[in-house]
Amino acid sequence: MIRARAETFGAWVRVDDRTLLAVDRTLARRFGVDGGARWSEPSRGLVDQTERPLEVHVAVTSRCPAGCDGCYLDARADGQHRPFEAIAATLDEVAAGGAFTVAFGGGEPMLHPELPRIARQARALGLTPVVTTSGIGLNAERARALSDFAQVNVSHDGIDAYAEVRGFDGAGVAERAIALLVAEGVGVGVNVVLTRQLLGDDGRGLLELAARVRALGAREIQLLRYKPAGRAASLEYLMRRLTPAQIALLPSLLEQLVPGVRIDCALVPLLSFARVDELLALGVMGCEAGRGLSAVDVEGQSKPCSFMAGDTRPPVAEPCASCPVRAVCRGGCRVVSEHVAGDRFAPDPECPRVRAS
User: Residue 51, Cβ neighbours under 10 Å: how many?
Assistant: First the structure.
């Protein structure tokens, strides 16, 4: 079933679970969209004018026994599951707000006893549900019950680097989860947090990991920036974030991973010396917090993103003010700016252009 939402430029149209299109007003009308007051003024054709979240991240639990050193939520083995009724109420609000995708996380969502029911509830509201897991708590029966999810994203932070990065060796757990899900016909993506331990001197660790999970049947790899939130907001962050030399490797590594690779919005400033038209062709945009993205934490509180509450407006200072990549980058990650520079509205201090200024 096609689902659409009018915007000033035209409309967002969800064709299926994996296809969300931005269309102009002419094509939007062919899909039966009426823009009403949003189309009263001439369109400037800017998708960047999106007014409401396209995707909402919803935490369903703060429980997880892994104790990962870099957990942004500070999840614990005695953490609490959010009740189904409270999650269902949140989903009602998400659907009413016009979002298309709801991404469930934690903690470890597989430990929530109502997870399959939560996915069914999202489907009933016209939302596309996805979920992220480390693989802990997943068995064949549980995998079979996840058929309502459009995709299950398994976190995997390196064949050899996993234990060093996370504090426990969960690589085998992640790979077993991928194999179980693929065997049950569930779409699988893999989330990879980029750290200096994973990339090493030449990036080979990332390429080897990508080859491994694709061989297991993963259809997509998403690269994520390591962010200083939760337990990662410590000196450990400085020891695990990418070095300038590793950041310089990223454009080449991305070329070797295409197709079937995505990057999170926080990585965009690290690609600031890439060509803007190439970034746009890949559908890459910078910080979406409070724009195309929002989050609801395990207490039911709304936030611009899973990592930060409060104002996330982009910086206006140089070198961002006159940067040719600003329209794509949007000034970088506010979480990193606040932690490293002490000012969330400062230019991203790890951006190569900021470093060079």
Answer: 12
Spatial distance between the Cα atoms of 348 and 326, rounded to a whole number of angstroms: 12
pLDDT in tens, 58-105: 999 999 999 998 899 889 999 999 999 999 999 999 999 999 999 999
Q: What are phi and psi of 268, to 5 degrees?
A: -55, -45
**Integer Cα distance of 16 and 34 in angstroms:** 21
Q: What is the mean pLDDT of residues 321-327?
A: 87
For 298, phi then psi, to 5°, come to -70, -15
135 shares its domain with 62:
yes
Q: Both 16 and 134 in a single domain? A: no
Torsion sign across C-alpha atoms 345, 351, 353, 356: positive
List Cβ neighbours of 137 (8 Å cut-off, separation of 6 or more).
108, 110, 111
List the one residue out of 58, 62, 68, 28 whose CA is nearest residue 45: 28
Q: How many CA atoms lie within 13 A of 49 on its CB side?
A: 15
Question: Three-state DSSP class for 18?
Answer: coil
357 versus 138: which is more confidently predicted? 138
- How many CA atoms lie less than 13 Å away from 85 in the CB half-sphere? 0
Report how far apart, in Å, the C-alpha atoms of 83 and of each of 2, 278, 307 are. 30, 44, 22
- Alpha carbons 354 and 357: distance in angstroms, whole number: 5
Give residue-wise pLDDT tens across range 271-313. Answer: 888 766 766 666 678 899 988 999 999 999 999 999 999 998 8
Q: Are residues 75 and 91 in the same domain?
A: yes
The 8-class DSSP code of residue 315 comes to P
Tell me what pLDDT residue 47 has.
72
Q: In what order do the strands lie in the sheet with 220-225?
A: 261-263, 220-225, 188-194, 151-155, 128-133, 101-105, 55-59, 293-296, 302-303
CA dist 354 → 181, 267, 337, 340 (Å): 42, 14, 11, 13
| Domain hosting residue 44, numbered range | 3-49
Q: Give the total number of structural domains in the chain.
A: 2
pTM, full prediction: 0.94
Pair 204, 161: CB distance under 8 Å? no
Tell me the two tokens of residue 241: 């974030």
